[in-house]
Amino acid sequence: MKDQDTPQARGGRARADALTPEQKKEIARMGAVARWERGTPRATHEGAFVLGDVVVSAAVLPTRQRLLTQATFLRALGRSRSPKGGTGVYSTVDGIPFFLQAEVLKPFITEDLLMSTAPVFFIDKSGKKSVGYDARVLPNVADVYLKYRDACAKEGKAVTPRYEPLIKACDAVVRHLAQVGIVAMVDKATGFQEDAALVAQTIELYVAKELRQWVRTFPRSFFQELCRLRGVTFRDDMKLPKYFGHIINDLVYNRLAPGVRQELNRRSPVQPTGGRRNKLHQWLTEGIGHPKLLHHLGLLEGMSRAFADGEYDTFHARIDQTMISYSKLPLWNQVEEIESAPEQPRLPPSTA
């Protein structure tokens, strides 16, 4: 065609003909990398921490999603195979990742877990393409293996030998994460913390400028579950021990979003009498803060039902594994230092 015989086209063909095979291959590789990078997020923070006997590599994306690299995620589960050549990621069958495909595991896998185990492609800080999984998925996947082990024990069956090392590794993961939440570990390893401007924006979304009219927000059943786990008799008049205020701050307001509890305390400080003029939840916004609180309470109550009477400490450890407490992040602690509200009473040991 005519446009293929322009001086520019002839010059391009001449330059291409002058390239060595190695140069052509490198140009093709760089083009492929450029296409792969287009639209793929780059890690803003990276680091590593020790989980049992495994060094786990972590990253944080611009969306604030915390990731564990695929290779170290699998090593933490006791697996060491490499992805199939050319894919960079393990294959799935019917949307199930290979580490959950065993028939013996399927009774313990929820739909939510399957949806959360999709691999995440990203560019690391060195410019290399990487694959990872959401950090919060690790304890949930480990728990699937432990549920399989517990079911075998309950039925008097032996665990299939091939799964024994995996179960041992998963048990180590869960035990370790019972002490420190996985998200907090990633943040500490990568040096990531919530930006002050971002916290201010979050507070504006969650906390209303005017007090909302009081409506019952915390379900009666939520407090019944807490009393059951604490070994405390639930009273019909809803009169709760004073230290339950500390429990609510810890389980609920500390975990809604960064900076929110401090702003709620500022809006409704503790009075000399020990009470508050308004309920903290009355300051939450209709569109985001209040719905988020209701959703969070539903999650807590649902998780609480998986634990026996008096197992509050075990329940709390599981909450720490799956829900970050912003009170443990550096920026939150800086705000905490200027908080003028009186200190909450110290939580007594479980009475069960």
Q: What report would you give on this structure?
A:
- With 352 residues, this protein is an alpha+beta fold.
- The protein has 2 domains: 45-190, no CATH class; 196-337, no CATH class.
- It has 14 helices and 7 strands.
- It has helices at 7-18, 21-37, 70-76, 111-116, 137-155, 164-177, 182-190, 196-206, 220-230, 244-251, 260-267, 289-304, 312-322, 330-337; strands spanning 45-51, 54-60, 66-69, 92-93, 96-97, 120-123, 129-134.
- A hairpin with a 2-residue loop joins strand 4 (92-93) and strand 5 (96-97).
- Helix 5 (137-155) crosses helix 6 and helix 9 crosses helix 12.
Features:
352 residues, alpha+beta, 45% helix, five-stranded antiparallel sheet, 7 strands
In short:
The protein has 352 residues and is of the alpha+beta class. 45% of the residues lie in helices and 9% in strands. It has 2 domains: 45-190, no CATH class; 196-337, no CATH class.
Order of helices and strands: HHEEEHEEHEEHHHHHHHHHH
Give the strand content: 5-15%
Poorly predicted regions: 83-87, 331-352
User: Which sheet architecture does the biggest sheet show?
Assistant: 5 strands, antiparallel
Mean pLDDT comes to 78
Name the structural class. alpha+beta
Give the number of domains: 2
Number of strands: 7
Q: Largest beta sheet: what is the strand line-up?
A: 1-2-3-7-6
Shape: flat
> Can you count the helices?
14
Supply Rg. 26 Å
Tell me roughly what share of residues is in helical segments.
40-55%
Distance between the termini: 87 Å
